[in-house]
Write a structure and sequence with these properties.
The structure holds 2 protein chains of 2 kinds. Chain A has 5 helices and 2 strands; from the N terminus they run E-E-H-H-H-H-H. In chain A, helix 2 packs across helix 3. Chain B has 2 domains: 144 residues, Fumarate Reductase Iron-sulfur Protein, Chain B, domain 2 (Orthogonal Bundle), CATH 1.10.1060; 322 residues, no CATH class. Helix content of chain B is 47%, strand content 5%. In chain B, strands 2-1-3-4 form a 4-stranded parallel beta sheet. Chain B has a 3-stranded parallel beta sheet with strand order 6-7-8, sandwiched between helices. The longest helix of chain B has 19 residues. The two termini of chain B are 24 Å apart. Classes of the chains: A mainly alpha, B mainly alpha. At the A-B interface, helix 3 of A face helix 10, helix 11 and helix 20 of B.
Chain lengths: 110, 519
């Protein structure tokens, strides 16, 4: 179970989340997004970058509400809302966006 | 029923029968396999990392140990008379047509092995009594089908002997764990809770940041500094709520509702970063030791913070563990105020606040919704609430009706003690079981579609984190928006008006600002 990025093999778990978080790169994000059938545009990158910044500070993904609020501040309410987030990441801004951003999968009743 | 579908004047159509028995499809779900736990997660829980060499011997000994220790389990294995009353009661059978998802068939996967090794007839004449050897194929079959049971106990209500498939399912998972065959979803989560205090893996710093962010939102909305306190020593109330309430939608909106209610009631309260989880997945895997360890954190947090009361947030099986087992697992709670239920449910707290006229409510704030209520299985069939029998059904409805003008129940045989599971309970709320989850939600969704057709219901409320997540994922498959599932306390939050709150809509509040005393 691995992704191939520029000739490098990067391991992932059964669900496609990378196992060694330090191996993440923008090129890898594009590869994961390809597998997920998500075409990365500026708005996708804004979400991914925020997730990574938040993770760096708190070692966990932000609450969906916190993410949306941050994106709303950055890109306005047309993008910063729950519905639009699901248009960007059809399997959810938490799980799918985390996978592409190289974060661990949020677990529990979520 | 009169004046149905008043908006259009057309008669409502029949959507479908939630209880319709499907065509039998042998082996339809035989290939469904939830991901296996990694060795380190099994070991974190005190189980062998991988399948033991002598697994058969260990598994049989474990069944014997459980039958000896848990008399109910033995009675359930011994007493089934194959009457068939349970066969069409499981939502997974109704949704998949796989006969092994009939409760009696699910029980027999383990019962047949128990007979072989623990009954006279099974030992000497196995072919006469449906007894079979424990082989690797049988073990695999257990893993497959005991992870297609959400332990919702709907079948046990139908059983004339009260045989509880959930107990058998829990026992089977414990046997599997004891030989090194754990399920990833449950075991990874319990391991995480032991490290961080919650299923999500939220550390204190992140939890603090999340709560501060929510306080900011509440102040922006109301103009009032409503607090979400963390680790406050000497607070009166310790709130134990599922960590999904700190993360997911619509869960987090429910958390804001608890905060508003506590604020309006003027009580001091706190969340604990040490016991930042209500859910107890130890129950799903039938592990008393793990269930106890998770519960013990709640006791420890209550002692460390010096609180007088414990209140549980909206979490289904947490409330079963809280209401039915907490005292056995982590009691006695003689250090808490004995004048209140130990623990108390947030619904009891809010219902009392409504009765006492403490909450100012503007029901019209929820007029955009036509509501129904989904009884969560573990609350419905594993607990009670309030001072009256059936309070676990009546209190949530009472609160909903106090904050919403438009409310209709679904068909009687699909609610209250006969409620259908959401399809994601009991450790099955994992993406690798999505096909099962969608199919298992069918009976509930059919009942919902009917009440939408009959009364124009637009949204459904629930008081369980699993139900909320499950429905937000599966409702789009049944013609609803993902945000058609709401937290009960989200609706409370919408309608409650706090003292001093800026209220631009003065006319509405003047008209409907009634304190909701019992009439």
């Amino acid at each position: 179970m691995s992704y191939e990025v520029n000739g490098v093999t990067i391991e992932h778990d059964e669900e496609g989340y990378i196992t060694n978080l330090s191996e993440w790169s923008e090129d890898l994000a594009k590869v994961i997004a390809g597998v997920e059938e998500v075409e990365m545009g500026d708005e996708h990158w804004a979400v991914v970058n925020f997730l990574r910044e938040y993770y760096e500070e708190y070692q966990i993904a932000p609450a969906v509400r916190v993410l949306i609020k941050a994106i709303k501040k950055k890109l306005g309410p047309e993008v910063g809302n729950n519905k639009y987030m699901y248009e960007l990441f059809p399997y959810g801004p938490a799980k799918q966006a985390c996978k592409i951003a190289g974060l661990p999968k949020p677990t529990g009743c979520v | 029923m009169v004046a149905l579908d008043i908006n259009t004047g057309k008669s409502p159509k029949f959507v479908g029968d939630p209880h319709a028995v499907p065509k039998i499809e042998c082996g339809a779900m035989a290939d469904v396999k939830s991901f296996a736990a990694h060795p380190e997660h099994n070991e974190d829980l005190g189980f062998p990392g991988e399948l033991l060499d002598n697994w058969q011997e260990v598994a049989i000994a474990k069944i014997g140990e459980l039958a000896k220790k848990n008399r109910a389990f033995q009675v359930y294995l011994d007493t089934c008379v194959k009457c068939g009353a349970c066969t069409d009661k499981c939502h997974y059978f109704l949704g998949t047509g796989d006969p092994k998802n009939m409760p009696v068939a699910r029980q027999d996967l383990l019962r047949s092995v128990y007979r072989r090794y623990f009954t006279f007839a099974g030992k000497y004449f196995p072919w006469l009594v449906g007894a079979r050897d424990l082989t690797k194929e049988v073990l695999d079959e257990w893993y497959t089908y005991y992870h297609q049971c959400s332990q919702c106990r709907r079948c046990s209500v139908a059983c004339p002997y009260g045989i509880d498939t959930a107990e058998i399912s829990m026992a089977a998972r414990e046997v599997l764990d004891s030989v090194g065959v754990g399920q990833k979803y449950c075991n990874e989560i319990i391991a995480k809770l032991k490290k961080t205090g919650n299923n999500l893996g939220l550390n204190p710093k992140a939890l603090q940041a999340t709560l501060e962010d929510l306080e900011e939102d509440l102040e922006d909305e109301t103009g009032i500094p409503v607090k979400l306190p963390l680790d406050v020593k000497g607070a009166d109330i310790l709130l134990i709520t599922p960590s999904a309430d700190f993360f997911a939608e619509p869960h987090i909106d429910g958390l804001l509702g608890y905060a508003k209610v506590f604020h309006a009631a003027g009580v001091s309260w706190t969340i604990s970063s040490y016991a930042s989880e209500a859910a107890n997945f130890g129950m799903f895997i039938g592990s008393y030791e793990n269930m106890r360890e998770v519960s013990w954190r709640i006791r420890q947090a209550a002692k460390d913070l010096g609180v007088k009361r414990i209140v549980f947030g909206e979490c289904g099986h947490a409330w079963r563990v809280g209401y039915s087992f907490l005292n056995t697992l982590a009691g006695p709670f003689d250090f808490l105020d004995q004048n209140y239920p130990i623990p108390q449910h947030i619904m009891e707290f809010t219902a009392d606040a409504i009765d006492e006229g403490i909450l100012k409510i503007d029901k019209s704030k929820n007029d955009e919704y036509v509501m129904t209520y989904h009884d969560s299985c573990n609350v419905a069939r594993g607990s009670a609430m309030g001072r009256e029998e059936g309070g676990q059904f009546d209190l949530p409805r009472k609160v909903l009706k106090a904050v919403c003008n438009n409310y209709y129940d679904m068909e009687q045989d699909t609610i209250r003690e006969k409620t259908f599971c959401c399809g994601g309970g009991g450790g099955l709320l994992t993406d690798d079981l999505m096909d099962l989850r969608i199919k298992g939600a069918k009976p509930r969704m059919t009942a919902l579609q009917q009440v939408s057709e009959d009364h124009g219901v637009t949204h459904m409320a629930a008081i369980c984190a699993i139900c909320k997540t499950q429905f937000s994922k599966v409702m789009p498959k049944y013609g609803y928006q993902m945000d058609s599932i709401l937290s009960v306390h989200q609706l409370v939050a919408n309608a409650v008006i706090l003292d001093g709150e800026d209220n631009e809509d003065d006319t509405a509040s003047d008209a409907d600002n009634t304190s909701m005393e019992e009439k």
